[in-house]
Amino acid sequence: MTDIQQELAGRTANLLAWLYTMRQAGGYGGPVAHWWQNRFRYTGVGLDWRYEGILTGFALLAGKTGDVNRFRALAELAVADLRAGQLENGHFHASRFEINPGSPGTPHEAAASLGILHALPLLSDPEAALACAKNNVDALIRDLWDEPRQGFNDGLNSVGRVPNKLATFAQTLMTLADVTDDEKYLDYAKAALADVLKYQNADGTIHQYAANAQDGDGRFFPYYNARCVPPLVMAAEVFADEQYTQAAQGVLEFLTRTMQEDGAWSQIIYTGGSHARWARWYAGTADTLLAYHAAAEPIPEVALRRLLDAQLASGGFMTAEGFAAQISQRHQAGARLNHRDIMPVVGWNDKVLRLLATLLPEDTPLPDATPQDVSVAIKVGRSDAIFEETSQFVRIVSQKDPDKVQFDWKKSAPWAHVVHFPLEVR
Amino acid sequence: MNVESLHVDIDIRPLEGYPQPEGAHGLAWSYLLDNIFADAYAHHLERLVMVLPHEALEPLCHARATLSRSNIAERGKAQGSGLAALTPDVPASLEEMTRFYSLDYGLLAPSPWREHRHTPDDWQLDAQLYVLTWQVKMWGFAMKILNQINRPHLADRATFAMRASFASALPTPSFYELRGWSPAAAEGEPITANAAEANANTTPADATSPKMSPKVSEVNHD
Q1: Tell me, what's the pLDDT at B186?
Q2: DSSP bridge partners of A145
Q3: Separation in Å, CA of A398 to nearest CA in chain B
Q4: What is the rounded average pLDDT of the residues B46-58?
């Protein structure tokens, strides 16, 4: 085994060890730091896109490590979370990630159902799992289909398109069509993909949002553009249509020309060329690198190295760097991370798990995990603080006075015990 | 795993003209309800009676109750009841209650709702949270102008400035004012003029103090 293969196996083992610590009654929980909003008060279960990477990762690891029993048990536990959390209307509770607890969440539910579909071959009761995913997808079709415009809305009561979410939904629909042999899902997938293509520019960039299904908003997120690539690559194969290949290639060219020297991407690039440079993802970068892999392009080594180096001693990967500059956009690379940057979040780490499982060579048993407690100097607002994580809790204390607790969460609890401003900011 | 969820009793008393919990008010209610349920969980309440001003809030409460799961083997059986009086004029009977949450309406709310304020006798104010502050209006105006003159990169920065000032533990003009109370003579509860100090000095091992945002801020805002 090469050094990088050994490294991937070791990092995967530690990531899995960390992931186990994030389980609580009903599923995987923990705080959420995101570009749009944050949740440090609610730390309970989220039945959202975290299950995409978790279940896909488990399914891949079962095959690659040979430890089928271990990953079957884990996958069945995760599917049980989703089945138990499925509402009568087919949606999942707490499926809105950074807006949890709320339901229904896009693209989160479709992503979670995609995870189920990927894990089906591993499960001892695939029929029950398939029924869960199908009920969810049918609910999404029923509630989001925009008949006059022949597309899918982003929310229950408003007309609008979010292309990257539509791409994820299309991937779920294509996978479900394959499993069920029901071609109606392919028709819906085509409709979703039509809006992805509609909002792609000639330079490959895809708009983030289109209010009222009209013009794109002129915001181009490298991360969200990258999430469109695997579904487009799949669509090219399913529909034997080159336009999807070209669309995926256009996104990859955008990613390649906007990657920074250290292997990071700006958060947003706007029409006209201005950037929202900060925050730059760590864990989320896994999806960007997966886009290269899906398109059979070489993964930029500098970006992979930057991602791998973002793993904490606990095994979790940090979320980002530069969230403190989200408003000012003035930040020094290498400056102290803040609480949002450093917090390892299940719904970002699942993406790393999926990437590592994808890159891991066949027949690679995982080594024993070696997770350790974490204590890192960070910033909370303008104050210096210490971030501490063990298998039992996450705590942030004042560096000057360690008795002053600013955040305290016992990992088995659905609500954090102490949350002081600015950690309360959503 | 042997788990139990918080039991909630909902009493809806609709108010004419009350805003739907959507958009800015939706975000506000996420602060309000999350703080109430987190505090109820911290105090290991068995039951929460909620008086709500809008029927659309009911499923939001039920979802949080369902998700407020306790491991009985770990924490023991829940006990005690709380009352969340979230309408302006509810006659609050606090008999047999161990926690009380009151929602008052501040300067940004319609004047009829501001007339009544909950001031329970013999109860200790532990924490308060001001939500949907005046700065939201200011930054919202900036966002609108910047979008109109086609400066989306600046509009996005204004959006996050608005978010950063959306709620405050410091008294500030706002639409909603949430307060958390405990019986003044409750055994085991800290009786202190500065709950913030109690909170700030809390360690997980000995925590008994309320966990809503403290009534005096001791941490910098960004």
Answers
A1: 52
A2: A152
A3: 9
A4: 97
